[in-house]
What does this fold into?
Amino acid sequence: MNATAHPYTLAPAARGWSHSAVVLPPLGNLDAYISAVNRLPLLTADEERDFAQRLQQHNDLEAAGKLVMSHLRLVVSVSRQYLGYGLPHGDLIQEGNVGLMKAVKRFDPGQGVRLVSYAMHWIKAEIHEYILKNWRMVKVATTKAQRKLFFNLRSMKQGFKADALDADTHRDTLSDHEVDVVARELNVKREEVLEMETRLSGGDVVLDPGPGDDGEDAYGPIAYLADARHEPTAVIESSQRDRLASDGIAQALEQLDDRSRRIVAERWLKVNDDGSGGMTLHELAAEYGVSAERIRQIEVAAMKKMRKSLEAYA
It folds into this structure.
């Protein structure tokens, strides 16, 4: 998502509203955007309640726009807390704005809570999700406890550093005691704290450095990391084949009657210990008391039905 490319316009139809769009101020110039939203008027409690009721009862998009616009400065303020993750401030603001719009859509004025308090959760949740998806360390946090660790370790380390400066000691890494404190307060294992600290402190590596000062291509990891087996398209195709060979075939077999299912299994899926297959057409014909040609016809019809099921599954 590029915050500098175009104005930020979000169609509520994509977010739960059913009619025209709520248009936010353009993010073309970030400083100008921040200055503009800081000049937008705040709503009184009565105005906020009135607009929220109009949105809730009549799906009034003008009221929704008033609620969103009056809280854009909150998104800017919250987004500043996440600048240390190396992501563009404009992108953080855009994601926070999405969270704000979700909050406005779900806000119930009858609960007696101001929108600013309710929206804080949705804004942070949307920014958190964006950071986890786009930060340089892919899949850095997967469980709820790991996410809490991810977003709290940095600030906790700053607190430990301040204490260390007061004691005239200088350390970039956590001590054993500090690791124990973090693990206990965030309810995670010591090993997870140490791993997350390593990830957060790790630098980025340029895979393809490009031309050097002499005009020649510089040697980088891209030269020795290439592996066709892990090329994304090949991985996806392999994964699809695996699913078709397991879940897809199992689902297709479920569409058949018992006799057809057994015939297909004996003819195509069964492998004996000596490497031989299952029963022949004549053996199946003798068991069911019909001709071999009839067994072949049942097999052809079953395979056709399975093929359609596999195509739908894929």
